[in-house]
Every structure is written in C-alpha cells, then in structure tokens.
Design brief:
Oligomer: heterodimer
CATH topology of chain B: Rossmann fold
Structural class of chain A: mainly alpha
Distance between the termini of chain B: 32 Å
Strand content of chain B: 25-35%
Number of domains of chain B: 1
Membrane topology (chain B): Peripheral membrane protein
Number of strands of chain B: 10
CATH superfamily of chain B: P-loop containing nucleotide triphosphate hydrolases
Number of helices of chain B: 9
Number of domains of chain A: 1
Distance between the termini of chain A: 41 Å
Shape of chain B: globular
Helix content of chain A: over 70%
GO cellular component, one term (chain B): plasma membrane
Keywords (chain B): ATP-binding, Cell membrane, Membrane, Nucleotide-binding, Transport
CATH class of chain B: Alpha Beta
GO molecular function (chain B): ATP binding; ATP hydrolysis activity
Order of helices and strands of chain A: HHHHEHHHHEHHHH
Largest interface: A-B, 23 and 35 residues
Number of strands of chain A: 2
Shape of chain A: globular
Protein name (chain B): Putative ABC transport system ATP-binding protein
Largest sheet of chain A: 2 strands, antiparallel
Strand order of the largest sheet of chain B: 6-7-8-3-9-10
C-alpha cells in the first residue's frame, strides 16, 4: 500500500507540474484541467483497446490534451473570454468529446497491454514508479531547459508583469497560448498514465482533480520556501507524494471513503489558510514568511 | 528637421457607466521631430496618460491616424510598436518583472523587438556588460544583479526601468511621470540621470511631469494639455523665455 501510494504520488506529480506552469508561472487558474485530464485517459485507453501500442497511445493522449489547451488559449486571448470561463467552457465541452471518443462512459483495460508492461521484470508497483520517474524527468528537464531559453524568459515575464512584458515587445497572447497548450499536454499525459495504472478510463475521472494538483503545489510551497525554479519543480513531486501518503493514512485510519473529497478539499483549504492561521495564532515569529 | 511621429486628429471617446460619452482626447494633432525632448504638462484628466497610451498602442483610439516615420501604425499592436518605442511607467512596480532578477530583467529588455527563440538565453555572457551598465548609474544596482527586482527600493527599480528602456536606444522614449513616486532626493537624481542619458544617446523623448521646475529645466519643447487638447506648444526659444511665474499663470487660467 505504501509503495503504491508513492507510485501514485509520482503520477499525480506530473499533473501538479502541469498546473504549476499556468497557475504559478502565468498567474492564472486554468480549469481546462478537469477536462484535459480525463481526455488524456480516454484517448490513451481507447487507443490501446483498438490495438495501438501503449506508448503511441500515450503520445496521442498528450496531443489531445494540447488541442484542448489550444482551444482554451484561443478563447481567452483571441476571443477575450475571461480565462476561468474559457476553461469551464472547454472542460464542459470535453465531456461530450470524451463520450464520443470512448463511445461509453467508461472503458476497461483488463487483459490489454499497458505502458507498464514494458518493465514486467520489476516487482509490483516498481514498474509504475519507474515510468513515473521517467516521465517526470522528461517533463522537468524539458521545462527547465525551456524556462532558461529566451522564449522561456519571455514566458515567465508574461506571468510576472504583463504590461511590462508587452511594453518591451513580448507577444503575451502567444505566451499564454503556449502555456495552456503545454500544460494541458502534460496534464493529459498524467491522465493517460493514471488510467493505465488504474486499468480503466472514466468520463467523470476529472472531477476534483484540480484539488489534487493544487495540493501538491501548495504543500510544496508551505514546506519549502524560497527555493529556485528547478527546486520548486522537484518539491512539487515531494508534495504530491506526501499528499498521497496523507490520503493513505486517512483511509488506513478507517475514514469513510465517501468523504474523501471533502477531506481533500479541507486539507488544501487548511494549507492555503496557513499563513493567515499562523498570524491568528501569533506564530509569525518563528515561521513567518520572509519579506 | 526629421519627422518621427505624427498624430493626426487623434480622438479617444469612452463611455462611462451612464452611457455618457466622455471625450478624453479631442482631435489632437502633434508632430514629434527627431531630437525633440518634449515636456508635457497638464492637470488631472487633461488626457496626458491617454495620449501616451495611444502612442504606445496599449489603448486603441476612437478616430485619427498615427504615423511613425511616415508609416501608418494606427492599427499596430503594442508589442509591435515596442520595437521602436520604450516606456517608463509612473509606478515603480510596473516597469520590471518582480520575481526575476535584475540581470534577467536587463536581458529581457536587451531583446526588445527581437525574436525570442527556444535557445538558451546566455545570461553569463552578458553579466560583465550589465555590471558596468548598472555601475554607471551609481546607486549600487551592480551589487544586486542576482536580486529579484521585487526586493529593490522604488528608486532602484525606477533607475533599472530607465536602463531597460534606454538599453536598445529606442527611437522614441516615453516617460510617464517616472519620478513622481520617489522621495525628492531620489527623484532629483533620477531626473538628472534621465537627462544625461537622453543627451548622451541623443534620444527623442516625451516626458509627462507634474513638476513645473522640471518641465522648464529639461527639454527643448513644452506642451500644455487641457481638456483633451494641446493648449500650448512652445518651441525651444519660447520655452527658454518662459519663467516659473508664466507657467503658474498658464495653469491658473485653466
């Protein structure tokens, strides 16, 4: 159970990193997530069931997620629809797209090959950990390379100070589209990997996952302050694993799983409120935020 | 004299909550020649900032035409116009990216109007240049190259904004009350630095100010705006004859 939770943590960390590139770097919440994640699951599982190699199926899932991000990006930048609404529109629309792709509300991978079968020699769960780490390495190193290119710096500046970015000639609309496409590609990847781990895809698989992604980011930020961008990405992985272990502990304690979502939201709310709570408890002196 | 920017009958009308038309700029005609250093005076609501926003393209105009080097740029986006014009904002927070370091900000500004490819940014190669550049303005910015600009003082941030804006020697420099948010001493130093840069690099500049002394001391042309119109446009000779009392009288008349 313990190893399984860690493995799950790695897969969910990919989601956290995807959300981080928009939520923290571009500084806006992208709700497309709740649609692009199950879309990734649906595309990967449907492709595998129709005989496509799991690796190619996973790539197809990434492309589908990127397409979803592109639609949100165009609605937001060209259509001038507020970003939260753009995300909600796409998320809601994707529900139908997922049903169209799978032709049913859920699809099982029972007796079909999975990406994890590539490493059958490994003990239980370690195949998932291996693939998870591999995917994380690719995503994080790719992101770090990007952030320190000229384009990546323009991307960070867009989220940091949009009016200044525009005034020095950065095409901020293009940066936002780029971010949404990339982030939703990564999010769909995590959807594809988690579906293959679970053994099925479900049209409702995206409900509440934004909380899981945010939780890994917030836990990372509360525990590790003042870190570099690269370290921040790594701490999100730690945050994600910790969050899965926390959920595991709660289930082990005999908590009714019906209330797991309520519990997740409450944990996240507590973490988000922690600076305020500390202030209330007058604990700022020993662990207050540095200004 | 070479014409740089020409505003032809620029009008900006916005609708307020009660659907009333509010004319912010009223058929403004203005020609900026190469080498002009124009100080712009005017009370609140005279349309100075809207004039700037129309020139940079951060606000669209209701009617009229903007020509830059005899090319019609009225429909150009702000990003596209940024190739040839740079702007320093009034608010020190507005001019820099707060989470990025001083040298990262400078590198961003160095690429003004250029392609920003998916290639390593090569920060280290520019470090020496940025260090000398920051040292040249003498307020210790060179010791903070690795500091996020959000941690700098207002004065340091504004001088960094000025550096970033003049780095690539834009054809037109727009200063929007860039010393207004600073304490008197810092503000004076920044203004002297600004003037020095404009003279050295022979920049064409438009500067909004509320300090009448500055409007008189600096620049070779002065315009006074009132109710969305250019009320007064004084050339170098007339401006030199102007005294502070004259300016106060002009303002009183409003």
């Amino acid at each position: 159970m313990f190893i399984s939770a860690i493995a799950q943590g790695f897969l969910w960390a990919i989601l956290g990193i995807g959300i981080f590139t928009t939520y923290r770097i571009l500084n806006f919440p992208d709700l497309t997530v709740e649609g692009s994640f199950p879309l990734g699951s649906a595309v990967a599982v449907t492709a595998i069931v129709s005989g496509i190699h799991p690796f190619v199926a996973t790539l197809l899932a990434i492309l589908a997620g990127m397409a979803a991000g592109l639609v949100t990006g165009l609605l937001y930048t060209k259509g001038k629809v507020p970003v939260i609404l753009s995300g909600i529109l796409v998320m809601s629309g994707l529900h139908s797209v997922i049903l169209f792709v799978m032709q049913r509300p859920n699809l099982s991978l029972l007796n079909y090959p999975k990406l994890y079968d590539l490493f059958t020699g490994l003990p239980n769960y370690f195949d998932v950990i291996f693939i998870g780490l591999l995917a994380l390495t690719l995503v994080i190193s790719g992101l770090l390379f990007f952030f320190y290119t000229s384009k990546g710096q323009a991307y960070i500046a867009t989220g940091d100070n949009e009016s200044m970015a525009r005034s020095i000639g950065i095409k901020t609309d293009n940066m936002k589209i780029l971010g949404l496409v990339f982030a939703n590609g990564v999010i769909a990847l995590s959807g594809a990997l988690i579906a293959q781990d679970n053994g099925y895809a479900d049209v409702n698989g995206g409900i509440g996952i934004i909380v899981i992604g945010l939780a890994s980011i917030i836990i990372a930020e509360v525990i590790f302050k003042e870190v570099t961008l690269g370290e921040r990405l790594l701490t999100i992985v730690i945050g994600s694993v910790l969050y899965q272990l926390l959920l595991l502990a709660v289930i082990q304690l005999g908590f009714d799983t019906t209330y797991i979502r309520l519990f997740s939201s409450s944990i996240l709310a507590l973490f988000l409120m922690s600076p305020q709570l500390r202030k209330g408890l007058k604990l700022t002196g020993f662990s207050g935020r540095r200004e | 004299m070479e014409e740089l920017l020409e505003l032809k009958s620029i009008t900006k009308i916005i609708q307020n909550e009660s659907d009333m038309n509010n004319t912010i700029l009223d058929h403004v005609d203005l020609t900026i020649n190469k080498g002009d250093f124009i100080t712009v005076l005017g009370g609140n609501g005279a349309g100075k900032s809207t004039l700037f926003n129309s020139i940079t393209g951060s606000q669209s105009v209701t009617s009229g035409q903007i020509d830059f080097k005899e090319k019609n740029v009225t429909t150009w986006s702000e990003e596209k116009r940024a190739r040839f014009m740079g702007r320093v904002f009034q608010d020190p927070k507005m001019g820099t990216a707060p989470r990025m370091t001083v040298e990262e900000n400078l590198l961003l500004a160095l690429k003004r109007g250029k392609k920003r490819p998916f290639l390593p940014r090569k920060l280290k190669e520019h470090r020496k240049y940025f260090e000398e550049l920051c040292a040249s303005i003498g307020n210790g910015l060179e010791d903070h190259l690795d500091t996020p600009t959000g941690h700098l003082s207002g004065g340091q941030r504004q001088s960094l904004s000025l550096l970033m804006t003049t780095l690539t020697e834009p054809d037109l420099l727009l200063l929007d009350e860039h010393t207004a948010a600073l304490d008197p001493k810092t503000s004076k130093r920044l203004m002297a630095l600004t003037n020095q840069m404009i003279q050295e690099k022979e920049l064409t500049c438009l500067m909004i100010t509320h300090r009448m002394e500055d409007a008189l001391t600096y620049g070779n042309r002065l315009i006074l705006m009132e109710n969305g119109k250019v009320k007064l446009d004084l050339g170098e000779e007339e401006k030199n004859k102007l005294t502070l009392e004259d300016l106060f009288v002009l303002f009183e008349r409003e």
